[in-house]
Queue: 3 jobs
Job 1
Amino acid sequence: MPSHQLLLRGGFIREVAAGRYNLLPLGARVYEKVIAIIEKEMEKIGSQRVFTPTLHPKEIWQKTGRDKVWGKSLLTVKDKRTGQEFAMAATGEGLFTEMIKNFNPSYKDLPVYLHQFSQKFRNEKRPRGGLVRLREFLMKDAYSFDATEESFAKTYKLFYDAYGKIAKDLDIIAIPVEADNGALGGNYSHEFMVLADYGEDKVVVCDHCDYRANTEKAQFVRGEVNVDEEIKDYKEVELPYEVGTIKQLMAHYKMPAEKFIKNVVYKTDNKKIIIATVTGDLEVNEIKLKNLVGTKGDLEPATDEDLASFGAKSGFVHSWGYKDKRIIYVADEVVTKAKNLYGGYKTDATDPINVNYGRDFKVDIVGDICNAYEGAKCVRCDSGKLTIKRAIEYGHVFSYGDFYSKAHGATFVDRDGSEKYILMGAYGIGVERAIAIIIESHHDDKGIIWPEAMAPFKYHLVGLNGKGEDVYQKLIAAGVEVLFDDRDISAGEKFADCDLIGCPYRLVVSDKTGDKIEIKKRGEKETKLIDIKELT
């Protein structure tokens, strides 16, 4: 990603291990400025800053079963003296719920808003993009605690609006989209996404209405497959052994992909096998599938060995008929409404045609398990079509309801003296990722173009022919942020580094400038001569 390249070349970061980076002096200055911008907005809405430990007693995670849901992504350690197990902070919901619970609040104490900037540890499968997806990073995570649904609705909007304001202060354009709560649990959430050519996420956007969702949540209107046909008799026809992929089937039968059954097989952490059935034109969304089945932990694609264990092989997976009790059959809703599909029980020499759900086979679970696709009909309006855009998640706000408070026994005393569960929300921004997003939004082919509020220095002073020290000292004395390049190298190299590092203004002092200073704004061509008094 451009941000990764420029942060490395500009000397802002260096990799320690996959997903773990040192922030060098330039990077550290940007880091502190981003933190200050976020902190300012948290203070405005009344959130109070706290500090919590990195190691959480594992039983806190076990109360909600989040230890199993996070699976391998959660790092754990054992105290060699006591034998106690700890989870390394991946997020803080359980810890904060216990904190509030221990104060035995009444309705008079609520709402409460707390936040922290703390190091997070997540054993990501595929750290990528430099600072975009890390295994260790700083997060601003905030947590709210309310007594009523009405109060929480105001709280959610307060943080939602604050995230929009923070994005504006960071000079990025963030689009709120409906999102999946994932391993964190709870009711509903919104991600704030920044469109980026190399973004790791995808956002589904309607071209007619305001529907926005990430791919794990996006709904769409399914195409109708053969719905006008009469149901035909089930048949098995000859099919060459080597014809197995959807493309091969399309060529063999001379039919479009949506008329075929496609099976995709996954395995769960608890050794269950999921056979997911869709039409040939659609792709299975693993998160949707996981949520529909209700399995904990990550899904993994089944291996050839897994397939062989229940009598299948790649290209020969059946939609029905296996006797293995580990298997869960799941189908997308499109399959249940289609008529006269081809496939679903391919053998070495035959393939079924005119397969109809309900008559010829049934599954254990039916639901939405597919990715929305480019041009699909919008579920919110009659005339809109969906487009898919790449993006990076800048922030995420969650509604949890009483998901955590029930598990932790976190109650408050209401006006009538009864005990009720506290309603909770959570709100996160990754600091390093925010830095990467700023650069993705502000760069050119020469380097970074920092917005002034986040720049490591406001001015980058270039001294030529031994000049510039007196100007530097005057600027420092006046409290001006300035990076002084006094190296004994060519002017061209110095100017290239100015553009690469990306401070808002370049200053040049040389024999040609005399008692003036040449100033140029980063990203612009025009230069002018000014007096030092104008800078100080």
Note: The first helix runs from residue 2 to 9.
Job 2
Amino acid sequence: MKSSNLLKFLQIRLKNQLGLSKLNTTSASIKFHSRITLIGYIIVFALLVIYFAYLPFQMLSEGNLQDINTYVIGIIFWILAIWTCLSGILNLIYSEDHDYIFTLPIEKWQAKLSVIIYQYILYSFLTLILLSVVQISLILINPIPFYNIIYIFLMALCTPALAIVLTVIVVFIVKEILNYLSIKSNLVVSLLSFVLLIAPLIFSYSKTGVRNPKLGVIEVSLLPFPIFGELDIIQHFTIFGMIAFVFLGSYIFLLLVNNKYDKILAKFSRQSDSANSHFKLYITPSFVALMKRELKLYSSSFSYLSNTILMPILLILIGAASLLFGEKLIPEYTFSIFNNDFNISSEKVYYIIFTACLVLTTTTTCAFSIEGSKIWIIKSLPLTIFEVSFIKFFLNLLIFIPGIIIAILSCLFMGLVPLQVIQAIALLVCNLIFTSVLGLLLNFRLPNYQWSNEMEVVKQGLSTIIAAITSMLQVAVTSLIVIFLDFNYLFILIGFEMMLTVYFIITFQRERYFR
């Protein structure tokens, strides 16, 4: 009976996360936001299904069809692991409805593990669907033995479990080490956890390069050999051993979480040390005070920090790689369209990646919404909206400054003519300013202060979704210009973005946002 109650609770949780529970509300704005959120999930899921359905045909043309399941299981694992890390493992232990869960008619261990169980079921469902799509496409090309399909679906149950458990262990180890060193910065925890988690992937790509991105994933997949044809006895035992190890490890992990739940919660909960703080009253310039406050707000939210710091860090890493390795990491590539050959040099690929890193993440789309119900504090202060807005805008520039400096240096050493260098650098700067201003305007127009979980703002916010779509269009247009027209015509996009930025600023003034 209590197990059925747990299932009912998990169903309700899924409806809330997808926004289905809000579709019947009388509030038009909440209903509209729920519909957009649901549409966004459907579009992303449809794109994933299409990509995985096409994968067997793509890998057949590349001549490595035998590695299809190895690659698919590998890419799903890394997607789930990175997603779990960026979402924050605290959300697996403690949720906003934590107190409510423990009042439900379910077993105490079910209440403690309900969020982990929910996440595992959701991950497993998505993994099974994607693997099923791949197997259906594979049947049309080269059917594999039935027992291999059984192994694949058993791995589909193991992959989400391993992604969750491994991510939690990595973050826990990092947090324990930093606590021992008396370092309590969420920024440091987030960065070190993410880097340590993807270290095997980085090491793999350092050996295989990125010309064929699939090879890097295949090298560190859960499967040490392809599940494609007939398997020998050692391979059978290896698969059974891996499956048994994952399930046994997951069982031990759940036992530890259940038995040490209170201690784990105490370690990862947001604790305030205000009781031991000594307060001093002194006067500082409003800019300095607001900047300190904004940095504190940014670093105190693991979800906000982890989901917006990835691209600035990636920009630094890719920029440094372009200066140190150049063509060794990303070689020149040529492709043909309608009997016309087009050359994609390493410089073009690097520049497209720089653009993607700059525009695919911006803090300004949720800069005001992340304040939540505390937004009234800002409104009551003797400050103009312009001052507060500029600080939030400046924060987004600040976190990208190291990366954009390295990207600019890379442009200087790309061997372009002076006019091309000027255009390349100018577009990078314009992209950052344009995306930041657009995000701020969208957050003004589509704020969400009534959220129960930070992820509703950071990932599911309507302003974030619209900005992400716009950013993908920016990357697409930049790629088309760079690949087909070279660096000589970037001024077209520069002029367009500058005009839109001016229009956005005029809109701020016209609609009295800055007063």
Note: Residues 270-277 have pLDDT under 50 and may be disordered.
Job 3
Amino acid sequence: MSLKYDLDKFIPRKEQENCLEFIKKVTSTSPDFKFFLLNLPVGSGKSHLALMIADWYQKNVNSKAKFDIITNSKVLQNQYTNTYGSINDLKGKENYRCEKYDASCQQGGEFNRLNKSNCEFCPHSYARDQFLFGKISLTNFYLYILYQLYKPDAIEARGANVLIVDECQDFEDVMSDFISIKITDTLIKKYKFSNSEEISKKLKGVKSIEEYVDFLKDFKVDVETTYGSIQNALGSLERTPISDKRNNKLGKIFGSQNPDLKLMQMLVDLDQLKSKIEVFLKEWREDPNNWVMETQYNSKTKQNEISLEPIWAFNYLDKYVFSKCDMVFLMSGTILNKEMFCKLNGLDPSKSVYYSIPSPFPVKNRPIYYIPVGKMSYDKKEETFKDYVPMINKLLKKYEDKKGIIHTNSFELASWISRDIKNPRLVYHDSSNKDEVLEKHFINQNPTVLVSPSMDTGISFDGDKARFQIIAKVPYPSLASQKNKMRKQNYPEWYAYKTVSGLIQAYGRIIRSETDSGDTIIIDASFGDVLRYSSSFIPSWVQSSIKKINLPNLAN
């Protein structure tokens, strides 16, 4: 399907036309600008604007240009591809099915490699080729960064000139997570290393970053050795296209009557783990002062888990991504401040231009009701939650025939709500079933209410999917994180900026068009501190929607 066909589907909104006119004017008068920071609230039509930019660029700058559009989730990928046929979409191999081996394409590819065979048609290979050779290609942040770090030759061969980053407020965080590394006792046991006990003992003895780095150097050898052993075991077995159900020695070892799939997945995982360790060691050698060691308690495994994380990721964004592009368009409703965004993402301010517009939606359709029940700060949260219970029950009653969301910002607060508020409308998810629970909420005819710490960005609750939302905890970055502590210490304004960005992202979930409407209720009294100390980051169009309601005046 052609780009023209996709563009002709919709009449451009004035917000899209005005933004494109701005881009045209800047490029005609100041051609040295490389980075366009487009602060576009919900309703601006960022996805269609991305195609308008591609069309303009091809016609006026470079007719042979190729474009990469990347976004922060598969949900948004699907929104693009369900609307536009001219975009070449790529997801990870695990999202495609190999019919030959009745497995994922990730596992099927390993089977073929060991069997020295090929599939007649591979859905992932087809999608990858379309992505690499297409004019306009789309993928998610994670997969794009994976290609940049581990398959740079493929990206270089693609030769995309222009990068368009949708929901760019999350890009730096994803790069930081991607570069981070965490080895756990559970992971060590999963791969059944011949010296698992020795490895676990070494890991438990790690007390510093330097000791962790030494551990990883040795662990990389263990990974390579185990990879070779599994590869040899698989190579010695003859297998049919669809794995048989032998109860052989390997099956007994791995607790399965069909061990091949588990072994193949282990090979894939070990290969990725090896690559991840190599990238970390390389980046640590180049800048050892940019790393912190995090220790977190995992309540499921009942173990402390140690990770190494970069304090800032902007150097990696420039090295692996931005330096390879002729022009970069960064789109979000929460860029908010040019200087801050440039600093966090490693952009040269002299080559960056900022464009910002207010929300196109009527303020009466998007009210924010601030009801300060109590502060959900660390030392007051348990006492405050006692007052939350009657308030949340009251709000559920007020919106009893409406779907909604309760943003908790933590699984802990979600679990407290589950424990103390017994309302059958409330729906919960864990870290493994978020997409499934979300889809059930969408299709359920009853007025369900999602309780979630992680649905405050990138998801559209348009229309009746949510007519109200409760922000139960201001999304302050956790200072239990050493990385966040160092960020706040080195750059105090980052903390306020990140908090406001999170609030505005949540605010934008339920109002998705000019005719849409919904109420946002903030019950965490910490929002008063945000208004008092961080208002410089809050756009006027957001401030104009806030209505404070004191508890004594709250209608029953």
Note: The chain has 23 helices and 19 strands.
